[in-house]
């Protein structure tokens, strides 16, 4: 993976060679995130998108507090999906005005915390709107709200669809005018709309189409709004390549289309901030997962590297986090990068289940106990998206380097 340099056959992360980093961290397995790569990704995106577009980081992708703190200094806002993530965002120093909170089942206690903090709440049901009105009255602070819309279209070729058709997220577009009337009647401070159609998309045309349709839908809904639209969150869905044959997302057409949207918004929604919210695209490629080979076994001719980490730390690399067909994440022996990858090797973890597979018959150099297996593209949906308590092994450490 070309984003990480190689020195003397070793991967270098944040300027530190891998074996030295493992010693510094003090244990395997661990995740390491490269600050410089995180910063470079945000800079690349700013370059490609019009200046009028605000960039938010979706904390769900990687909630490690130090990483969120680093991201908070780079982006225009943070999106959270629970009171736990809200606390991380506030601790990271993000201004409450720049935090928004989405999620289909916000508990009343979470709503109250968010109202007290002064963040923007993406309202996802009529019940939630009424609960927010009660909380506002009780606390004496107005709830700032945007309406999360379940659009009447899908994000095509998306890894995970989160809008269009029947969905638990947001309110169906056709019911939004009634919800807007309710928001007005309840006296909530209406600020705008949130549309999020899906995740992990590598086709620029599909993202362009979804953003364009989202903008047009928001323009129509704005006619029923109780106050001018001040924020329009057009979602995200930018993917990263994981598997052979996948290529990087082409940002140029997305930037060009967003420039058109920004121009139209200046007259049709004057004063509205345009936001996109990205998780995986911002952090996924800056992170690796590292585990150490405990044993090398050959079973009926098949080589297995048995490691001290696996599915319990990195569910998505094992293929069990939403994938339909299991494919290998890019992987390497991080301390033997100059050796040719010639041996079909399966990398497995220590769990007593055949699901604990990090690489299935991948061409890797000869490796054995003590060597370091690296799984790339691991900066998003890794540690926090894995069942770390499963089978009672130690948790992975995370380091920002
Ligand atoms: C999950 C999610 C995101 C982040 O998605 P990525 O694919 O990581 O960019 C952003 N917004 C909302 C509402 C989400 O649910």
Automatic annotation (TrEMBL):
<dbReference type="Pfam" id="PF00278">
    <property type="entry name" value="Orn_DAP_Arg_deC"/>
</dbReference>
<dbReference type="InterPro" id="IPR000183">
    <property type="entry name" value="Orn/DAP/Arg_de-COase"/>
</dbReference>
<protein>
    <submittedName>
        <fullName>Pyridoxal-dependent decarboxylase, exosortase A system-associated</fullName>
    </submittedName>
</protein>
<dbReference type="InterPro" id="IPR017530">
    <property type="entry name" value="DCO2ase_PEP1"/>
</dbReference>
<dbReference type="Pfam" id="PF02784">
    <property type="entry name" value="Orn_Arg_deC_N"/>
</dbReference>
<dbReference type="InterPro" id="IPR022644">
    <property type="entry name" value="De-COase2_N"/>
</dbReference>
<dbReference type="InterPro" id="IPR022657">
    <property type="entry name" value="De-COase2_CS"/>
</dbReference>
<dbReference type="InterPro" id="IPR022643">
    <property type="entry name" value="De-COase2_C"/>
</dbReference>
<feature type="domain" description="Orn/DAP/Arg decarboxylase 2 N-terminal">
    <location>
        <begin position="38"/>
        <end position="283"/>
    </location>
</feature>
<feature type="domain" description="Orn/DAP/Arg decarboxylase 2 C-terminal">
    <location>
        <begin position="30"/>
        <end position="379"/>
    </location>
</feature>
<dbReference type="InterPro" id="IPR029066">
    <property type="entry name" value="PLP-binding_barrel"/>
</dbReference>
<comment type="similarity">
    <text>Belongs to the Orn/Lys/Arg decarboxylase class-II family.</text>
</comment>
<keyword id="KW-0663">Pyridoxal phosphate</keyword>
<dbReference type="InterPro" id="IPR009006">
    <property type="entry name" value="Ala_racemase/Decarboxylase_C"/>
</dbReference>
